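Hi support team,

I'm opening this ticket because the web form for multi-chain structure prediction keeps timing out on my end. I have pasted the exact lines I submitted so you can reproduce it. The total is 558 residues across two entries, so I didn't expect it to be a heavy job. Is there a limit I'm missing, or should I split the entries? Thanks in advance, R.K.
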Amino acid sequence: MPPEIGGGSLLIAWQLSGKRVLIVGGGEIASQRINSILVTDAHITVLSPSAGLHPRTEQLIAGYPTRITYLDGSYEHNPDDLELTKYDMILTALDDVELSRSICHYCRDRRIPVNAADIPDLCDFYFGSQIRDGPLQIMVSTNGNGPRLANLVMKKIRDALSGREGAAIEKVGALRVKLKERAPGVGGAVGKRRMTWMTKLCNEWDMGELGQLNEGTMQKLLDEGWEKDQVPSPRALGLKAKGVSSCPRNNRSPILPVLIGFATGVAYCAAVSWLLRKK
Amino acid sequence: MPPEIGGGSLLIAWQLSGKRVLIVGGGEIASQRINSILVTDAHITVLSPSAGLHPRTEQLIAGYPTRITYLDGSYEHNPDDLELTKYDMILTALDDVELSRSICHYCRDRRIPVNAADIPDLCDFYFGSQIRDGPLQIMVSTNGNGPRLANLVMKKIRDALSGREGAAIEKVGALRVKLKERAPGVGGAVGKRRMTWMTKLCNEWDMGELGQLNEGTMQKLLDEGWEKDQVPSPRALGLKAKGVSSCPRNNRSPILPVLIGFATGVAYCAAVSWLLRKK
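Hello R.K., no limit was hit. The queue was backed up. Here is the completed structure from your submission:
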């Protein structure tokens, strides 16, 4: 059973590879939208009069010429030429609320996913704060209740991660592909055996160890591990066992407090015996 | 500039309030999909022959009669009666890959957002591992590279949070609404002043303190704080200042190591002086 029913959003990872995204507007919010979409493989079109371009938007347009097409103009003057229906997603970042609303209604009628900055009731979806480490992506949403607190939660999450999760996930993904080539088949007994072996590996190796895998050690892991139905230690494959710790960055070692305690204990004893001798 | 360009998904919070979601299939995956959608306020329709219902799916259908409509049948036999276009999102959880594919193509042509379990290339979006604490929602996606490692990342995040973030975000959201009523207006000078004051509050109070706010203390905070352009301490409002710590659960106190060190130091001293006296 889900822990909390109702009232939430559906957090999803939208796929934009080979898709087209239109951003209407060129201000600061538009530059944030461009950054969000650059993370994907979508082609971006920015529609804005050149006078309305924020320096950051200009920089992005200049910096990613193969990713971004810039149209100098405004939505009001050529909506027919625009062919909005050729876009797979439309984001508005306009000061003109009425114009934003009319674009949203146009999109809604044609089921084009749309987000209008600052008009939550018209949005098909909201953006959130994000962390990315290679294939690992994390999103924090407060459902519009507090962007400032979202940043504090993001900081806690960043501090809890070692920064080695992305590399580990990438290597495990590559290993899964190799394993599927070696033992193909969807579902059934072989699928179950693959899943069990991968789970065992991920439980026994830590993130730092998984991240050290390369072509050679993956081959060895499949030969010595999968084929013999066991999970060898990283050391057995010539990797540094627990060499790279995956402890969170803020995990403090207890050595210093022990030393301080020890020194205080010795000092206390010395003081007491000095006082006793003085008598 | 975004830290990593290309290759990623667009993580978004999809809005399903007042929307209709169709789940085709009734097995274990279908029950997971129902759980995901129950978090939102969407109405759910499950289409599956009764013989194909997993016990968990049956339980959910029985447990949430106002949220879930169950259609006993299969997609093949009455696609016309179904009126797929009345749904705002369609999720397939079927063993029949060909059927799943044909539903996906139907949806794609009509721009109905669709997810097909186990057929990533046909999905408009992927699901991910999620944490929810009231208005706070967190999603972890490995972009299909390793569900097992996603769970390990989730565990790290859970351990880093105090469990008081949701309550704090909820209270801050309510306070923002009250503040907007007291000092209305979109953007401009008043919008800027509101944002500055809220940011200052969130920086100076911790999550445990923010979560203690109620109707009375919010009123006081606006009267004594906002009106006088200052942020009073939680103590000044009669709340326990730092009473409820917002430290992560795994943050260890250094008292124990200090005590151990102290005891070792005293024992060491005693042993040394005993040995010296013996001579």
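A quick check on our side: Chain B has ten helices and nine strands. Let us know if the file doesn't open in your viewer.
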